[in-house]
Design a protein that fits this description.
By secondary structure, this protein is mostly helical. The chain contains 13 helices and two strands, in the order E-H-H-H-H-H-H-H-H-H-H-E-H-H-H. 71% of the residues lie in helices and 1% in strands. Strands 1-2 form a two-stranded antiparallel sheet. Keywords: Membrane, Transmembrane, Transmembrane helix.
């Protein structure tokens, strides 16, 4: 939890604040531009798997890409805990390094869907998650009054990159191959580590109490295994917020709303190529 003494109020401006905003813009853009361009990669990967005689290429390719998307959001809990424990900078840097490594390894094993599922699906997704959460957390260190417009600018990065990156992907695939595409993506994603250096935290992190809310009077009797386990878990998870009904409803509704949200991003390009268009990267 963030403790904000009066002398550490967010500045709502200044060179460092605007640099943080731009870095967060690029984090969102790079991560979600890549995810939202999955349809182009899916079409190329499916054709490559078919050419290599892999059974059920569409299912295996879509599972690999869907795993990337799922890991990015599923690991947000881990990312939040690590952001509290390790800090914004280190968590973002580790995430960028893992995602970059995953993409570079993908360029070496793109013919092997089993390995690609690990490198692209798991490593890129996990690394992206570690970089994404801190890119939003850091905004609270520098902005309060202007948080609305800053959030809007940062999240617009995903929209802008989603427009540009599919065209870039198709251009690369038309001239080269998936191997080169993954290598170029690795170079782009490595910029997340540059963003990590810009994310200089300003606010102190207040450690959570070792006991659950309402357990202060039971401190003397907390030597049982059960209470010690609760104390340990409460260092990582804020149980108090789950007593807020509105938060619980919101938390449950968002995943439900997103359940089918990314399906078109993966399959729409292939569907269009099959029924309407000619794949530009094979012409």
């Amino acid at each position: 939890m963030l403790s904000i003494p009066p002398q550490q109020e967010p500045p709502d401006g200044g060179l460092q604040a605007w640099l943080v905003m731009i870095a967060s813009f690029f984090c969102n853009g790079i991560l979600f531009g890549t995810i939202n361009s999955s349809g182009v990669i899916f079409a190329a990967l499916k054709d490559d798997l078919e050419a290599n005689g892999v059974e059920n290429p569409a299912s295996k390719a879509s599972f690999c890409l869907s795993l990337t998307i799922g890991m990015t959001f599923l690991m947000s809990l881990v990312s939040g805990v690590l952001t509290d424990k390790l800090g914004v900078r280190l968590t973002t840097g580790i995430g960028g390094a893992i995602a970059t490594a995953g993409l570079f390894i993908s360029s070496l094993v793109y013919h092997k869907i089993e390995y690609l599922t690990i490198s692209y699906g798991l490593l890129l997704g996990f690394g992206g998650s570690l970089a994404y959460t801190p890119s939003l957390v850091i905004l609270g260190h520098y902005f309060r009054r202007r948080m609305g417009i800053v959030n809007g600018f940062v999240t617009a990065g995903s929209s802008l990159f989603t427009i540009v990156m599919p065209m870039l992907f198709e251009y690369i695939l038309r001239l080269y191959s998936l191997k080169v595409l993954f290598q170029i993506l690795a170079a782009i994603v490595s910029l997340l580590m540059v963003c990590a250096f810009i994310f200089k935290p300003r606010l102190a992190v207040r450690p959570r109490e070792g006991a659950l809310p309402g357990d202060a009077g039971a401190a003397a009797s907390s030597r049982t295994l059960k209470n010690q386990f609760k104390k340990f878990v409460s260092q990582f998870i804020n149980f108090e917020i789950w007593r807020n009904k509105r938060f619980v409803i919101w938390t449950l509704c968002i995943p439900i709303a997103l359940f089918g949200y990314f399906v078109p991003y993966v399959h729409l390009v292939s569907k269009a190529m099959k029924n309407i268009l000619t794949p530009s990267y094979v012409t």
